[in-house]
Amino acid sequence: MEYLYESAPRSYEDFASGRVLHNARGTTSFPVRLASELAQRCFHILEQKGAEGPYTLYDPCCGGAYLLTVIGLLHGRRLGRIIGSDIQPDVLQIAGKNLSLLRKEGLEQRAEQIKSLYEQYGKPSHRDALQSAARLKELIAESAVEEAACFQLDITDPKGALDRARGTHIVMTDLPYGDLVSWGGGSEDPVGRFFEQIHPTLDPARSVVAVISDKGQKLKHDRFRRLQHMKIGKRQAAIFEPLGE
């Protein structure tokens, strides 16, 4: 994969899971460089469509909201709403904590927690985390994010209510890997159901969908046009635009 926006090497250690951002057990962290690259590709496509920000970003398989939080920290000035959903209620507690870091108050509260740990144990890792928190605070100084929230939903369930996701400009998600059990729902075609469910929430003239998955999943749907496709190690990523009725 050729990086168009994150082409210059740099450190992403401030975003390490468990450092300032909270770690959700059983979930994997998403590569920060790839997250930023995909977000900026989506911004560019929307701008070409004439859709100006701030944008609404939605991840329907958010897990601990690591992906959403990283994008919010790096590109908050271009985002107005960040929302996530997941079928697993336990990870949503972590998701809420991570999304709170997109607000000044939430990040300051997290810094106080880390400071308390450093004063109690004096570990270099806590000192480094405090420094990271200070740098992240600078990142959100110009943020346009007014809402960052998450809710429980099975994106493969046709009865699921997606009212909170209507008006979304960017859907970005790292699809569950492996067999059907990984999705947690009962759909025989979870990827197809994912596309079906998100389509009504999108305006074809003002939205884009970025999907990341393992290479074993077929990323296509009749109601979406694929604009870009990339291979990244064992992963693949594709960017789509929804088609009108």
Written account of the structure:
- The protein has six helices and seven strands; from the N terminus they run H-E-H-E-H-H-H-E-E-H-E-E-E.
- Helices cover 33% and strands 20% of the residues.
- The two termini are 33 Å apart.
- It is globular and about 60 Å long.
- The protein is an alpha/beta fold and 245 residues long.
- The longest helix has 18 residues, at 104-121.
- The chain folds into two domains: 31-102 and 143-242, Rossmann fold, CATH 3.40.50.150; 103-142, no CATH class.
- It has helices spanning 32-48, 66-75, 89-100, 104-121, 124-139, 190-198, and strands at residues 55-59, 79-86, 147-152, 170-174, 208-214, 224-232, 235-242.
- The chain has a seven-stranded mixed sheet with strand order 3-2-1-4-5-7-6, with helices on one face.
- InterPro entries: AviRa (IPR024268), SAM-dependent_MTases_sf (IPR029063).
- Pfam families: AviRa (PF11599).
- This is rRNA methyltransferase.
List the helices and strands and how they pair.
Layout: H1 32-48, E1 55-59, H2 66-75, E2 79-86, H3 89-100, H4 104-121, H5 124-139, E3 147-152, E4 170-174, H6 190-198, E5 208-214, E6 224-232, E7 235-242
Helix pairs in contact: 1-2, 4-5
